[in-house]
Amino acid sequence: MRVKVLKRTKKGPVFDLLSRRAEGRRKPMPANLTPEAQAKLAEYSEAKTVEAKIRALEEFLKVAPKHKGAENLLYWARRRLAELKEQLETEKKKRKGGRNPFVVEKEGAAQVVLFGIPNSGKSSIIAATTRAKVEVSPRPYTTLVPAVGMLPFEDVQFQLVEAPGVAPGVGWVHRSIGLVRNADLVAIVLDLSLNPIKQYNYLKNLLEESGISLKKPEGRVEIVKERAGGIKVAIMGELVDGDVEDVKRLLRAYGIHSATVKLVGKVSLDDVEKAILGTNQYKPSIIILNKADVPGAEEKVKEFLEAYDGEAPVLVVSAKEGKGLEELGSTIFKVLDIIRVYTKKPNGPKAEKPLILKRGATVEDVARSIHSRMVEGFKFAKVWGPSAKYPGERVGLDHQVEDGDVIEIHYKG
Ligand SMILES: Nc1nc2c(ncn2[C@@H]2O[C@H](COP(=O)(O)OP(=O)(O)OP(=O)(O)O)[C@@H](O)[C@H]2O)c(=O)[nH]1
Ligand SMILES: [Mg+2]
Q: Which residues span the domain enclosing 352?
Protein backbone atom coordinates (compact mmCIF):
# COMPACT_ATOMS: atom_id res chain seq x y z
CA MET A 1 0.00 0.00 0.00
CA ARG A 2 1.33 3.42 -0.85
CA VAL A 3 0.76 6.13 1.65
CA LYS A 4 1.19 9.65 0.49
CA VAL A 5 0.32 13.27 1.05
CA LEU A 6 -0.60 15.05 -2.10
CA LYS A 7 -1.41 18.61 -2.78
CA ARG A 8 -3.28 19.45 -5.91
CA THR A 9 -3.28 23.00 -7.07
CA LYS A 10 -5.04 22.73 -10.42
CA LYS A 11 -7.92 25.17 -10.52
CA GLY A 12 -11.31 23.80 -11.38
CA PRO A 13 -14.71 25.24 -12.08
CA VAL A 14 -16.43 27.00 -9.23
CA PHE A 15 -19.59 25.18 -8.23
CA ASP A 16 -21.11 28.13 -6.57
CA LEU A 17 -24.38 28.06 -4.78
CA LEU A 18 -25.98 30.83 -6.68
CA SER A 19 -23.98 30.81 -9.89
CA ARG A 20 -25.63 27.78 -11.44
CA ARG A 21 -28.84 29.62 -12.01
CA ALA A 22 -26.95 32.56 -13.41
CA GLU A 23 -25.27 30.40 -16.03
CA GLY A 24 -25.40 31.78 -19.50
CA ARG A 25 -26.39 35.24 -18.34
CA ARG A 26 -23.68 37.82 -18.53
CA LYS A 27 -24.88 39.78 -15.58
CA PRO A 28 -26.42 37.55 -12.94
CA MET A 29 -29.23 39.25 -11.13
CA PRO A 30 -31.38 38.11 -8.23
CA ALA A 31 -33.75 35.27 -8.93
CA ASN A 32 -36.44 37.57 -10.34
CA LEU A 33 -37.85 38.02 -6.90
CA THR A 34 -41.10 39.82 -6.41
CA PRO A 35 -40.86 42.99 -4.31
CA GLU A 36 -42.66 41.08 -1.57
CA ALA A 37 -40.02 38.30 -1.53
CA GLN A 38 -37.23 40.88 -1.67
CA ALA A 39 -38.72 42.68 1.31
CA LYS A 40 -38.80 39.44 3.31
CA LEU A 41 -35.16 38.73 2.50
CA ALA A 42 -34.22 42.24 3.49
CA GLU A 43 -36.13 41.68 6.73
CA TYR A 44 -34.14 38.50 7.26
CA SER A 45 -30.79 40.19 6.86
CA GLU A 46 -31.86 43.02 9.15
CA ALA A 47 -33.27 40.73 11.83
CA LYS A 48 -31.39 40.80 15.10
CA THR A 49 -32.77 37.74 16.86
CA VAL A 50 -32.97 34.09 15.84
CA GLU A 51 -36.75 34.18 16.22
CA ALA A 52 -37.06 37.19 13.93
CA LYS A 53 -34.79 35.56 11.35
CA ILE A 54 -36.89 32.39 11.42
CA ARG A 55 -40.11 34.39 10.98
CA ALA A 56 -38.69 36.34 8.06
CA LEU A 57 -37.36 33.23 6.31
CA GLU A 58 -40.63 31.36 6.80
CA GLU A 59 -42.51 34.24 5.27
CA PHE A 60 -39.97 34.50 2.47
CA LEU A 61 -40.47 30.81 1.63
CA LYS A 62 -44.22 31.38 1.46
CA VAL A 63 -43.95 34.18 -1.08
CA ALA A 64 -40.77 33.13 -2.93
CA PRO A 65 -41.13 32.21 -6.59
CA LYS A 66 -40.99 28.48 -7.24
CA HIS A 67 -39.49 28.65 -10.73
CA LYS A 68 -36.14 27.15 -11.71
CA GLY A 69 -34.26 30.42 -11.44
CA ALA A 70 -34.90 30.61 -7.72
CA GLU A 71 -34.08 26.98 -6.96
CA ASN A 72 -30.73 27.54 -5.27
CA LEU A 73 -31.97 30.44 -3.26
CA LEU A 74 -34.83 28.28 -2.00
CA TYR A 75 -32.40 25.50 -1.09
CA TRP A 76 -30.35 27.95 0.87
CA ALA A 77 -33.38 29.43 2.62
CA ARG A 78 -34.70 26.02 3.68
CA ARG A 79 -31.35 24.87 5.03
CA ARG A 80 -30.71 28.14 6.82
CA LEU A 81 -34.16 27.87 8.35
CA ALA A 82 -33.42 24.35 9.61
CA GLU A 83 -30.15 25.54 11.14
CA LEU A 84 -31.80 28.52 12.80
CA LYS A 85 -34.47 26.30 14.29
CA GLU A 86 -31.75 24.06 15.63
CA GLN A 87 -30.02 27.08 17.13
CA LEU A 88 -33.25 28.21 18.74
CA GLU A 89 -33.72 24.75 20.21
CA THR A 90 -30.19 24.92 21.67
CA GLU A 91 -30.81 28.33 23.17
CA LYS A 92 -34.06 27.14 24.72
CA LYS A 93 -32.36 24.08 26.20
CA LYS A 94 -29.55 26.23 27.52
CA ARG A 95 -32.06 28.44 29.28
CA LYS A 96 -33.52 25.33 30.85
CA GLY A 97 -30.04 24.06 31.74
CA GLY A 98 -30.00 21.28 29.14
CA ARG A 99 -27.21 20.70 26.67
CA ASN A 100 -27.26 20.23 22.92
CA PRO A 101 -24.74 17.50 22.06
CA PHE A 102 -24.40 19.01 18.59
CA VAL A 103 -22.75 22.08 20.04
CA VAL A 104 -19.16 21.13 20.80
CA GLU A 105 -17.15 23.66 22.71
CA LYS A 106 -13.78 24.30 21.15
CA GLU A 107 -10.67 23.00 22.84
CA GLY A 108 -7.03 23.00 21.81
CA ALA A 109 -5.47 24.92 18.93
CA ALA A 110 -8.32 24.28 16.48
CA GLN A 111 -11.50 22.29 15.97
CA VAL A 112 -11.55 19.82 13.08
CA VAL A 113 -14.83 18.19 12.09
CA LEU A 114 -14.75 14.79 10.36
CA PHE A 115 -17.51 14.82 7.76
CA GLY A 116 -18.48 11.78 5.73
CA ILE A 117 -21.10 9.17 4.98
CA PRO A 118 -21.93 6.53 7.62
CA ASN A 119 -19.36 3.76 8.02
CA SER A 120 -16.59 5.65 6.24
CA GLY A 121 -14.34 5.19 9.26
CA LYS A 122 -14.64 8.52 11.07
CA SER A 123 -14.69 6.91 14.52
CA SER A 124 -11.82 4.62 13.52
CA ILE A 125 -9.71 7.68 12.64
CA ILE A 126 -10.40 9.23 16.04
CA ALA A 127 -9.65 5.89 17.72
CA ALA A 128 -6.37 5.54 15.84
CA THR A 129 -5.10 9.07 16.50
CA THR A 130 -6.41 10.07 19.93
CA ARG A 131 -6.93 8.53 23.35
CA ALA A 132 -10.69 8.95 23.17
CA LYS A 133 -12.84 5.87 23.58
CA VAL A 134 -15.15 5.83 20.59
CA GLU A 135 -17.40 3.15 19.24
CA VAL A 136 -16.34 1.55 15.97
CA SER A 137 -18.73 -0.86 14.32
CA PRO A 138 -19.51 -2.35 10.90
CA ARG A 139 -23.08 -1.18 11.42
CA PRO A 140 -23.76 2.22 9.82
CA TYR A 141 -25.17 5.04 11.98
CA THR A 142 -23.13 3.99 15.00
CA THR A 143 -22.19 7.51 16.00
CA LEU A 144 -25.36 9.51 16.54
CA VAL A 145 -23.97 12.33 18.64
CA PRO A 146 -20.60 13.94 17.91
CA ALA A 147 -17.63 11.92 19.16
CA VAL A 148 -14.63 13.97 20.29
CA GLY A 149 -10.89 13.28 20.70
CA MET A 150 -7.74 15.36 21.05
CA LEU A 151 -5.05 14.81 18.41
CA PRO A 152 -1.56 15.76 19.62
CA PHE A 153 0.73 17.56 17.18
CA GLU A 154 4.14 18.65 18.48
CA ASP A 155 3.27 20.96 21.39
CA VAL A 156 -0.37 21.62 20.49
CA GLN A 157 -3.53 19.57 20.22
CA PHE A 158 -6.31 19.61 17.66
CA GLN A 159 -9.83 18.71 18.63
CA LEU A 160 -11.28 16.07 16.31
CA VAL A 161 -15.08 15.97 16.20
CA GLU A 162 -16.97 13.28 14.35
CA ALA A 163 -20.10 14.62 12.70
CA PRO A 164 -22.73 11.86 12.64
CA GLY A 165 -22.67 10.30 9.20
CA VAL A 166 -24.72 12.01 6.50
CA ALA A 167 -26.74 10.29 3.80
CA PRO A 168 -29.81 11.21 1.76
CA GLY A 169 -32.87 11.24 3.97
CA VAL A 170 -31.25 11.12 7.40
CA GLY A 171 -32.72 13.57 9.84
CA TRP A 172 -29.57 15.08 11.33
CA VAL A 173 -27.92 16.21 8.09
CA HIS A 174 -28.29 19.90 8.90
CA ARG A 175 -26.97 19.33 12.42
CA SER A 176 -23.84 17.74 11.02
CA ILE A 177 -23.51 20.62 8.57
CA GLY A 178 -23.90 22.99 11.51
CA LEU A 179 -20.89 21.32 13.13
CA VAL A 180 -18.87 21.93 9.97
CA ARG A 181 -19.97 25.57 9.91
CA ASN A 182 -18.59 26.16 13.40
CA ALA A 183 -15.34 24.26 12.88
CA ASP A 184 -11.97 25.75 11.97
CA LEU A 185 -11.40 23.03 9.39
CA VAL A 186 -13.37 20.20 7.84
CA ALA A 187 -11.82 16.81 7.13
CA ILE A 188 -13.82 15.14 4.37
CA VAL A 189 -13.63 11.39 5.06
CA LEU A 190 -14.17 9.17 2.01
CA ASP A 191 -14.58 5.38 2.02
CA LEU A 192 -12.38 3.62 -0.54
CA SER A 193 -14.47 0.47 -0.40
CA LEU A 194 -17.16 2.53 -2.16
CA ASN A 195 -16.92 5.25 -4.83
CA PRO A 196 -14.93 8.18 -3.39
CA ILE A 197 -15.74 10.57 -6.25
CA LYS A 198 -19.48 10.14 -5.76
CA GLN A 199 -19.10 10.63 -2.00
CA TYR A 200 -17.02 13.74 -2.45
CA ASN A 201 -19.50 15.34 -4.84
CA TYR A 202 -22.39 14.51 -2.54
CA LEU A 203 -20.65 15.98 0.51
CA LYS A 204 -19.36 19.04 -1.29
CA ASN A 205 -22.80 19.78 -2.72
CA LEU A 206 -24.43 19.36 0.68
CA LEU A 207 -22.09 21.96 2.10
CA GLU A 208 -22.48 24.29 -0.85
CA GLU A 209 -26.25 24.18 -0.59
CA SER A 210 -25.75 25.43 2.93
CA GLY A 211 -23.46 28.20 1.80
CA ILE A 212 -20.20 26.54 2.86
CA SER A 213 -17.56 26.61 0.17
CA LEU A 214 -14.41 24.48 0.11
CA LYS A 215 -12.82 26.72 -2.48
CA LYS A 216 -10.69 29.60 -1.28
CA PRO A 217 -12.21 32.82 -2.59
CA GLU A 218 -10.11 34.91 -4.92
CA GLY A 219 -11.56 38.11 -3.55
CA ARG A 220 -13.61 39.58 -0.76
CA VAL A 221 -16.79 41.62 -0.53
CA GLU A 222 -17.37 43.89 2.44
CA ILE A 223 -20.74 45.53 2.93
CA VAL A 224 -21.35 48.03 5.70
CA LYS A 225 -24.95 49.20 5.84
CA GLU A 226 -25.44 52.90 6.53
CA ARG A 227 -28.45 54.91 7.66
CA ALA A 228 -28.32 57.31 4.75
CA GLY A 229 -26.11 58.57 1.97
CA GLY A 230 -26.88 56.12 -0.79
CA ILE A 231 -24.69 53.27 -1.98
CA LYS A 232 -20.96 53.85 -2.34
CA VAL A 233 -18.91 51.23 -4.13
CA ALA A 234 -15.12 50.99 -4.02
CA ILE A 235 -13.60 48.45 -6.39
CA MET A 236 -10.12 47.76 -5.09
CA GLY A 237 -9.59 44.75 -7.30
CA GLU A 238 -11.61 43.51 -10.20
CA LEU A 239 -15.34 42.99 -10.68
CA VAL A 240 -15.29 40.33 -13.38
CA ASP A 241 -18.83 40.46 -14.72
CA GLY A 242 -20.28 43.88 -14.14
CA ASP A 243 -19.78 47.47 -13.09
CA VAL A 244 -20.56 49.75 -10.17
CA GLU A 245 -24.13 50.28 -11.40
CA ASP A 246 -24.78 46.52 -11.37
CA VAL A 247 -23.57 46.33 -7.77
CA LYS A 248 -25.89 49.17 -6.76
CA ARG A 249 -28.82 47.58 -8.55
CA LEU A 250 -28.16 44.29 -6.81
CA LEU A 251 -28.12 45.88 -3.37
CA ARG A 252 -31.29 47.83 -4.07
CA ALA A 253 -32.98 44.62 -5.23
CA TYR A 254 -32.44 43.30 -1.72
CA GLY A 255 -33.77 46.43 -0.13
CA ILE A 256 -30.42 48.03 0.74
CA HIS A 257 -30.37 51.69 -0.24
CA SER A 258 -27.48 53.06 1.81
CA ALA A 259 -24.22 51.20 2.27
CA THR A 260 -20.49 51.24 1.71
CA VAL A 261 -19.35 48.33 -0.45
CA LYS A 262 -15.72 47.33 -0.80
CA LEU A 263 -14.64 44.78 -3.40
CA VAL A 264 -11.15 43.43 -2.78
CA GLY A 265 -9.37 41.07 -5.17
CA LYS A 266 -11.26 39.25 -7.89
CA VAL A 267 -15.01 39.11 -7.30
CA SER A 268 -18.18 38.51 -9.29
CA LEU A 269 -21.72 39.83 -8.90
CA ASP A 270 -22.56 36.41 -7.51
CA ASP A 271 -20.05 37.01 -4.73
CA VAL A 272 -21.73 40.34 -4.01
CA GLU A 273 -25.10 38.63 -3.83
CA LYS A 274 -23.74 36.00 -1.45
CA ALA A 275 -22.25 38.72 0.73
CA ILE A 276 -25.65 40.44 0.88
CA LEU A 277 -27.35 37.22 1.92
CA GLY A 278 -24.49 35.96 4.05
CA THR A 279 -24.72 32.66 2.19
CA ASN A 280 -21.12 31.96 1.47
CA GLN A 281 -18.48 30.97 3.93
CA TYR A 282 -15.08 29.52 3.01
CA LYS A 283 -14.07 26.51 5.08
CA PRO A 284 -10.50 25.20 4.86
CA SER A 285 -10.48 21.45 4.25
CA ILE A 286 -8.43 18.31 3.94
CA ILE A 287 -9.50 15.07 2.32
CA ILE A 288 -8.94 11.69 3.96
CA LEU A 289 -9.27 8.67 1.68
CA ASN A 290 -9.79 5.88 4.21
CA LYS A 291 -9.70 2.07 3.93
CA ALA A 292 -6.63 2.11 1.67
CA ASP A 293 -6.13 -1.54 2.65
CA VAL A 294 -9.23 -2.85 0.83
CA PRO A 295 -8.80 -4.58 -2.55
CA GLY A 296 -8.99 -2.14 -5.46
CA ALA A 297 -8.29 0.90 -3.27
CA GLU A 298 -5.18 1.94 -5.16
CA GLU A 299 -7.08 2.22 -8.45
CA LYS A 300 -9.80 4.29 -6.76
CA VAL A 301 -7.22 6.64 -5.28
CA LYS A 302 -5.81 7.20 -8.75
CA GLU A 303 -9.23 7.88 -10.24
CA PHE A 304 -10.11 10.22 -7.43
CA LEU A 305 -6.93 12.26 -7.83
CA GLU A 306 -7.53 12.55 -11.55
CA ALA A 307 -11.08 13.81 -11.02
CA TYR A 308 -10.35 16.04 -8.02
CA ASP A 309 -9.92 19.67 -8.98
CA GLY A 310 -9.76 21.32 -5.57
CA GLU A 311 -6.80 22.53 -3.61
CA ALA A 312 -7.09 20.58 -0.35
CA PRO A 313 -4.32 18.17 0.60
CA VAL A 314 -5.31 14.51 0.22
CA LEU A 315 -4.27 11.89 2.78
CA VAL A 316 -4.51 8.22 1.84
CA VAL A 317 -4.89 6.19 5.02
CA SER A 318 -6.00 2.98 6.63
CA ALA A 319 -7.45 3.74 10.02
CA LYS A 320 -7.83 0.03 10.63
CA GLU A 321 -4.12 -0.64 10.13
CA GLY A 322 -3.12 2.71 11.58
CA LYS A 323 -1.29 3.71 8.40
CA GLY A 324 -0.95 7.11 6.76
CA LEU A 325 -2.26 9.01 9.76
CA GLU A 326 1.19 10.18 10.93
CA GLU A 327 0.77 13.21 8.66
CA LEU A 328 -2.68 14.16 9.94
CA GLY A 329 -1.50 16.69 12.55
CA SER A 330 1.05 18.41 10.32
CA THR A 331 -1.42 18.55 7.42
CA ILE A 332 -4.08 20.18 9.61
CA PHE A 333 -1.49 22.61 10.94
CA LYS A 334 -0.42 23.64 7.43
CA VAL A 335 -3.93 24.13 6.06
CA LEU A 336 -5.02 26.20 9.05
CA ASP A 337 -2.22 28.65 8.31
CA ILE A 338 -1.53 29.21 11.99
CA ILE A 339 1.64 29.97 13.90
CA ARG A 340 2.80 29.38 17.46
CA VAL A 341 4.34 32.15 19.48
CA TYR A 342 5.83 31.74 22.98
CA THR A 343 5.79 34.63 25.40
CA LYS A 344 8.36 35.19 28.12
CA LYS A 345 8.84 37.59 30.99
CA PRO A 346 12.13 39.53 31.20
CA ASN A 347 14.78 37.14 32.58
CA GLY A 348 12.18 34.36 32.75
CA PRO A 349 11.87 31.13 30.76
CA LYS A 350 9.67 30.94 27.67
CA ALA A 351 6.06 29.89 28.20
CA GLU A 352 5.46 26.19 27.79
CA LYS A 353 2.22 26.62 25.93
CA PRO A 354 2.24 28.64 22.72
CA LEU A 355 -0.25 31.29 21.71
CA ILE A 356 -1.97 30.31 18.48
CA LEU A 357 -2.24 33.09 15.91
CA LYS A 358 -3.02 33.44 12.21
CA ARG A 359 -0.06 33.65 9.86
CA GLY A 360 0.73 37.32 9.27
CA ALA A 361 0.04 38.27 12.90
CA THR A 362 2.08 41.08 14.45
CA VAL A 363 3.48 41.89 17.87
CA GLU A 364 0.32 43.94 18.37
CA ASP A 365 -1.85 40.83 17.85
CA VAL A 366 0.29 38.95 20.37
CA ALA A 367 -0.01 41.76 22.92
CA ARG A 368 -3.74 42.13 22.38
CA SER A 369 -4.37 38.43 22.81
CA ILE A 370 -2.79 38.66 26.25
CA HIS A 371 -4.19 41.98 27.49
CA SER A 372 -5.24 45.27 25.90
CA ARG A 373 -3.12 47.06 28.53
CA MET A 374 -0.05 45.62 26.83
CA VAL A 375 -0.99 47.46 23.66
CA GLU A 376 -1.94 50.71 25.35
CA GLY A 377 1.20 50.86 27.48
CA PHE A 378 3.49 49.25 24.89
CA LYS A 379 7.15 50.34 25.00
CA PHE A 380 8.99 47.74 22.90
CA ALA A 381 9.31 44.00 22.42
CA LYS A 382 12.26 41.64 22.11
CA VAL A 383 12.12 38.70 19.75
CA TRP A 384 14.07 35.47 19.45
CA GLY A 385 13.46 32.96 16.70
CA PRO A 386 12.60 32.84 12.99
CA SER A 387 11.34 36.43 12.67
CA ALA A 388 14.28 38.01 14.55
CA LYS A 389 17.27 39.39 12.62
CA TYR A 390 19.40 38.47 15.64
CA PRO A 391 18.48 36.92 19.00
CA GLY A 392 16.69 39.46 21.19
CA GLU A 393 16.01 41.97 18.40
CA ARG A 394 14.07 45.02 19.61
CA VAL A 395 10.89 45.49 17.58
CA GLY A 396 7.71 47.56 17.52
CA LEU A 397 4.01 46.71 17.44
CA ASP A 398 3.92 46.22 13.68
CA HIS A 399 6.66 43.59 13.57
CA GLN A 400 5.36 40.37 11.97
CA VAL A 401 5.89 37.27 14.07
CA GLU A 402 6.54 33.77 12.80
CA ASP A 403 5.98 30.19 13.93
CA GLY A 404 8.36 29.40 16.79
CA ASP A 405 9.09 32.98 17.86
CA VAL A 406 9.72 33.80 21.50
CA ILE A 407 8.61 37.27 22.46
CA GLU A 408 9.08 39.50 25.48
CA ILE A 409 6.80 42.51 25.69
CA HIS A 410 7.81 45.57 27.70
CA TYR A 411 4.98 47.90 28.67
CA LYS A 412 3.93 50.48 31.22
CA GLY A 413 1.13 49.38 33.33
N1 LIG B 1 -10.81 -2.34 5.88
C2 LIG B 1 -10.95 -1.25 6.61
N3 LIG B 1 -12.04 -1.09 7.36
C4 LIG B 1 -12.16 0.03 8.09
C5 LIG B 1 -11.18 1.05 8.07
N6 LIG B 1 -11.59 2.05 8.88
C7 LIG B 1 -12.77 1.66 9.38
N8 LIG B 1 -13.12 0.44 8.93
C9 LIG B 1 -14.31 -0.35 9.25
O10 LIG B 1 -15.45 0.33 8.78
C11 LIG B 1 -16.53 0.16 9.70
C12 LIG B 1 -17.06 1.51 10.13
O13 LIG B 1 -16.07 2.15 10.89
P14 LIG B 1 -16.41 3.36 11.87
O15 LIG B 1 -15.13 3.95 12.32
O16 LIG B 1 -17.37 2.94 12.90
O17 LIG B 1 -17.11 4.33 10.83
P18 LIG B 1 -17.91 5.68 11.08
O19 LIG B 1 -17.65 6.55 9.92
O20 LIG B 1 -17.57 6.21 12.42
O21 LIG B 1 -19.41 5.15 11.03
P22 LIG B 1 -20.74 5.81 11.66
O23 LIG B 1 -20.42 6.30 13.03
O24 LIG B 1 -21.68 4.66 11.69
O25 LIG B 1 -21.16 6.87 10.74
C26 LIG B 1 -15.98 -0.68 10.85
O27 LIG B 1 -16.31 -2.02 10.62
C28 LIG B 1 -14.50 -0.47 10.75
O29 LIG B 1 -13.76 -1.55 11.26
C30 LIG B 1 -10.03 0.85 7.25
O31 LIG B 1 -9.11 1.66 7.17
N32 LIG B 1 -9.98 -0.31 6.54
MG1 LIG C 1 -18.74 6.63 14.01
A: 338-411
Between strands 231-235 and 338-343, the pairing is unpaired
CA distance 321 to 293: 8
Judge if 202 and 296 occupy the same domain. yes
Statement to judge: residues 126 and 198 lie in one domain: yes
Q: What are the pLDDT digits (tens) for 69-86?
A: 777 788 888 888 888 988
Q: Is 72 in the pocket of ligand 1 (CB under 6 A)?
A: no
- The reply to whether ligand 1 has any atom less than 6 angstroms from the CB of 320 is yes
Give 189-214 pLDDT, tens digit per residue: 999 999 999 999 999 999 998 889 99
360, 349 in Cβ contact below 8 A?
no
Cβ of 3 closer than 6 Å to ligand 1, yes or no, is no
Within this chain, do residues 263 and 388 fall inside the same structural domain, yes or no? no
CB-ligand 1 contact for 397 (6 Å cutoff) = no
Closest by CA to 190, choosing from 96, 305, 267, is 305
288 and 328 housed in the same domain: yes
296 — alpha (psi -120 to 50), left (phi > 0) or beta?
left
Last residue of a domain, one of 336, 351, 368: 336
Q: Are residues 303 and 183 in the same domain?
A: yes
CATH assignment of the domain containing 349: 3.10.20.30
Residue-wise pLDDT for 264-287, tens only, equals 999 998 889 888 877 778 999 999
Ligand 1: residue of 114, 122, 124 to mutate (most ligand atoms within 8 A of CB) is 124
